[in-house]
Specification:
This protein is of the alpha/beta class and 422 residues long. It folds into two domains: 188 residues, FAD/NAD(P)-binding domain; 125 residues, FAD/NAD(P)-binding domain (3-Layer(bba) Sandwich), CATH 3.50.50. 24% of the residues lie in helices and 23% in strands. Strands 1, 2, 3, 4, 5, 6 and 17 form a seven-stranded mixed sheet that branches. Strands 10-9-8-14 form a four-stranded parallel sheet. Strand 12 and strand 13 form a beta hairpin. Helix 1 runs parallel beside helix 8 and helix 5 runs parallel beside helix 6. The longest helix is centred in the C-terminal third of the chain and has 24 residues. The termini are far apart. The relative contact order is 0.14. It binds flavin-adenine dinucleotide (FAD). Flavin-adenine dinucleotide (FAD) binds next to helix 1, strand 2, strand 4, helix 5 and helix 8.
Length: 422
């Protein structure tokens, strides 16, 4: 009997790699029985990890709202494979996966690459060894390990540093100080903390962090991290008992190692059809994708961007099967919310992602933010119940193929586009 990987390879019309917001949504969208497609969804864990709630897991374990992906997908035609992807061979349309200690290959005609991102701890000396990250799993530097470390210091004036001036760092610092007011929490940022959207939003973020008692250190780039201190480029030293690294994200290296064109953060470079510019039978979505053309609102990492790009990629995959062309990907976000411990900043956005009208702060904003997070999950469950039903702001229904309207990988102004602000 031959033991060659090719003879034992399971083959699918579409394989979706990664079951986060993007991948799960893509798989559900492909689950229309009338399409008759063989679809597989591969994910490392059996449960769906709501990454937007990872900062809550610093305090206590968060009960998964989808504890079993296989049960969740049981009544759909999608085959769920719990396995870790090890490598991708785009020339042979194969993925090498590992499950329960053994490896095998899975073949695809089209692949939707949805492996998300993780905190980049390789971008400063000492960060990978001496810091914790808001990453899932049970690793020694994961959010779960951070929780154990924080609990060891509970009730003591431990020195906690959060490094980074963006939403991740703000959410981490806010959650720690809200839960353990005795701790001495400092947020160190290479720019002005909170300076990633409008001045009005920034003012609310900084006000609420200050209200909680978080010390803000702006314009200090961290140069090196040791077991008990952080040294900035200007030579300032910040001693710490716990350091949380939140200064940049990176996608998994599987695409780069497989020879796909990627950007500096290993995100797959895609056209506005979300197809890889180097390997068009591979689509990339969510945090793992970097569109090279306008996508309506800027393609920033968010649960909504991930989910709607997943829907779109599924439609693209189907369009190729039936020989049609669909509009380029375009979307709008309508609000953004950033948790700051017991508070949050929540603000409506225009179609180009610019904050408009007002910024809501305080506890009410935090409650509303939690409802939005819950809604994204229900956005997916709705798709599971009625596959093909979802549409999203800034996009006409992608299900209606528009023959010949879009150019693959094109970035020219086409009907349905919204231009970015700059
Ligand atoms: C603490 C925190 C708070 C956030 N808050 C917000 C917020 O309030 N609002 C918001 O919109 N966004 C928020 N985000 C961003 C948001 O979570 C991401 O943009 C979103 O999760 C991206 O979805 P995704 O499907 O691309 O990736 P993910 O959700 O990361 O999913 C990727 C999936 O791929 C799987 N995977 C990875 N590697 C492998 C492998 N080798 N083999 C098999 N499976 C693999 C993972 O297990 C995971 O299931 C937050 C992020 C963090 C970390």
């Amino acid at each position: 009997m031959s033991s060659s990987p090719i003879s034992t390879c399971e083959n699918y019309d579409v394989v979706v790699l990664g079951a986060g917001y993007a991948g799960l949504m893509a798989a559900l969208r492909l689950g229309r029985r009338r399409l008759g497609l063989r679809v597989a969804l591969i994910n490392a864990e059996e449960q769906f990890v709501e990454r937007v709630r990872l900062q809550e897991t610093m305090v206590a374990p968060v009960k998964p709202r989808i504890a079993s992906l296989s049960a969740y997908l049981a009544r759909t035609p999608v085959a769920f494979i719990q396995a870790r992807a090890l490598s991708l061979d785009p020339a042979r349309n194969r993925i090498n996966i590992e499950a329960n200690g053994s490896t095998r290959e899975v073949g695809f005609t089209q692949l939707i690459y949805a492996l998300g991102s993780h905190v980049d701890a390789d971008n400063a000396p000492g960060a990978s060894q001496h810091t914790f990250r808001l990453d899932p799993g049970e690793g020694p530097r994961s959010a779960a390990a951070l929780r154990a470390a924080l609990h060891r210091f509970a009730g003591r004036p431990a020195r906690v540093l959060a490094v980074g001036g963006g939403p991740l760092s703000i959410e981490a610092a806010g959650e720690v100080k809200s839960t353990w007011p005795d701790m001495d929490v400092t947020l160190v940022s290479a720019t002005r903390a909170g300076d990633f959207t409008s001045e009005k939003v920034q003012a609310v973020l900084r006000r609420d962090l200050a209200r909680l008692g978080v010390t803000l250190v702006d314009d200090e780039r961290v140069g090196e991290i040791t077991a008990n201190e952080v040294v900035t480029a200007t030579g300032r030293r910040f001693p710490h008992d716990i350091c949380i690294w939140a200064a940049g994200m990176r996608a998994p290296s599987i695409a780069r190692q497989g020879g796909l064109e990627v950007d500096a953060q290993d995100r797959v470079v895609v056209g506005t059809d979300l197809r890889s510019v180097s390997h068009p039978s591979i689509l990339a979505v969510g945090d793992s994708a970097h569109p090279n053309g306008p996508t309506g609102a800027p393609f920033r990492p968010s649960a909504l961007t991930a989910a709607v790009s997943g829907v779109y990629a599924a439609e693209q995959a189907v369009a190729r099967v039936v020989g049609k062309t669909i509009r380029p990907f375009s979307f709008s976000t309508f609000a953004q919310a950033i948790a700051i411990g017991q508070f949050a900043a929540l603000f409506p956005l225009d179609s180009n992602d610019n904050p408009i009208l007002f910024v809501m702060g305080g506890r009410a904003a935090r409650r509303l933010r939690d409802i939005l997070v819950w809604l994204v999950l229900h956005f997916m469950t709705f798709e599971r119940l009625l596959p093909g039903v979802q549409t999203w702001p800034g996009q006409k229904r992608a299900t209606a193929p528009l023959v010949g309207e879009a150019e693959s990988n094109g970035s020219a102004a086409l009907p349905g586009y919204q231009r970015r602000r700059s």
